[in-house]
Design goal:
Elements lengths: L35 H4 L9 E6 L13 H5 L7 E2 L12 E7 L3 E9 L19 E7 L7 E6 L5 E6 L9 E2 L8 E7 L11 E9 L16 E10 L6 E4 L15 E9 L13 H21 L13 H6 L1 E4 L4 E7 L4 E6 L4 E5 L2
The protein binds calcium ion (CA) (4 copies).
Length: 358
Amino acid sequence: MKRIETLGLGLFCMASVLTGCAGGEKQANAEGAPCIFEKYERYLVQPRSYVAYRTEGALKIDGKLDESSWQKAKDTEAFEDISGAGFAEPKYKTTAKMLWDDDYLYVGAVLEEPNIDAKLTQRDTIIYYDNDFEVFIDPDSDGHNYFEIEVNAKNVLFDLMLDKPYRVGGDFFLQWDCPGIQSAIYIDGTLNNPKDTDKMWSVEMAIPRQALTLSFNNLLKAGNTWRINFSRVEWLKKPEENWVWNATGRIDMHMPDRWGYLHFSDNKVGTEETAMVYPHDMDIYKLMWAMFYAQQDYKNENGKFASLNELPGLSAEMKQKVSMEATTNTYEICAEVPAEGKVYVLNNEGYFKKEDKK
Ligand SMILES: [Ca+2]
Ligand SMILES: [Ca+2]
Ligand SMILES: [Ca+2]
Ligand SMILES: [Ca+2]
């Protein structure tokens, strides 16, 4: 849901390796502004990735990840604080796993927890008022029209669709109830009894591929790469902790450009490994998103978006890679990627698409 807080920038830019910021480029800008990659570093760290393999045999959606498919699937990296580098390590460990078949994306998660607690019982109440586990999915990676599913330890769901992120005025549609979803929780401990010490709770979800598309496109197929992220809200005290697979860089999960990359392999889990495939040229993508964050600041400070020459922190070399049309309230950044025969386009609403090169 809507948890947005702005962090000060600039404290975390030290001692970093910055593509394109080497040597004189740091001062390449006429005003001597810091390199755009340096200034927005915390929003530009390359996200983590995961290759999901096909299941072997059916999964029983009972919350237990004891099927051989789950045992063979690798854990994600342990979750980290949503704000990223420089913030405290989560107190309790969380990891997730993914699998797929022709009909479902499967998500499993294990949440270490000494006091398993869940009070909410109604679907589509604000589940993160309890401790919860959250899934965010943007199958076509365009940064708009994405899905959010939250669940507490009572297996009560909060599921919604968003047309675009809140940072660009997005709306959420709580009326969306993920059609055909199966979800279950396993508890190693006792629920709502704080007198003992629990071990963990685990989440097992089967999310139908047909629930995750707005068209007739089958996006759940081998070779495709989606954007996905997981979050765990933990109420140790107020405000809540937000522990996530991929740090977004600030307390805002609604930054689909900051989510992880999920690639689907045609191989059965536990057999031959498939190399990760990113769906775009990562250097160009990074440059375009750096410009997006710089434009947000520029608009806040100047009441209008910048032209390419006005945008601080771009080197001459960077400016050669992109073009930008900007008005007071809109802009569109374009970059040719000859290797793909495509033009990448990113606009002021964070909508990303690829067009065929004319
Ligand atoms: Ca199971
Ligand atoms: Ca989308
Ligand atoms: Ca719903
Ligand atoms: Ca307990």
